[in-house]
């Protein structure tokens, strides 16, 4: 059931011709569901649009799955840590497989379950960016995701959380959680980085799904 999906990020701006092609192995078994979600290609495109700022940055991807955004960040020169549920070794294997398939040798793969502060989390190095693609898909997890994001931002007050999410229900809102954790959220228009299209990076993603992007930082006096 394993197959690979190819993504080619092109440079429409200053350096026409420069491009990055990645091959992401997917496991199309419904029990694992480890494939590239529509949100991932949008976040990857955002990283690609900011590639000049990535070299040397400390980047942690949460709920990375097959890790398209993290692999883009690594290939653009960031120091990347990929994480997924600590209790799901098969998810962590997916992170490693994506690295191997794309020549990423120095990324660290870590079990990090949202809401848990394990010794590994306490020992994380300095972070500049936290990534989360489609980590807001089950309202039962929202509190745990925010706990982890707020914890990491307080340890790294200059860091930003870049997240893409799919609008699955108009009833879901994270406004109360943002207030509770004293976080500031700024929406980023997909048109501002060329992601307002159904077919990004030569793929058929995000398709017709409505994906949104936000940058979350510490709010109030904490930032
Ligand atoms: C919808 S998938 C998104 C995967 C990937 N980020 C993407 O966009 O292609 C959600 C991911 O979150 C991970 N996940 C689910 N619950 C988690 C938890 N409690 N802690 C950490 N990761 C979790 C899953 O294993 C899965 O990789």
From TrEMBL:
<keyword id="KW-0808">Transferase</keyword>
<comment type="similarity">
    <text>Belongs to the methyltransferase superfamily. METTL23 family.</text>
</comment>
<dbReference type="GO" id="GO:0005634">
    <property type="term" value="C:nucleus"/>
</dbReference>
<protein>
    <submittedName>
        <fullName>Methyltransferase 23, arginine</fullName>
    </submittedName>
</protein>
<dbReference type="GO" id="GO:0005737">
    <property type="term" value="C:cytoplasm"/>
</dbReference>
<dbReference type="GO" id="GO:0032259">
    <property type="term" value="P:methylation"/>
</dbReference>
<keyword id="KW-0949">S-adenosyl-L-methionine</keyword>
<dbReference type="Pfam" id="PF10294">
    <property type="entry name" value="Methyltransf_16"/>
</dbReference>
<keyword id="KW-0489">Methyltransferase</keyword>
<dbReference type="GO" id="GO:0008168">
    <property type="term" value="F:methyltransferase activity"/>
</dbReference>
<dbReference type="InterPro" id="IPR029063">
    <property type="entry name" value="SAM-dependent_MTases_sf"/>
</dbReference>
<dbReference type="InterPro" id="IPR019410">
    <property type="entry name" value="Methyltransf_16"/>
</dbReference>
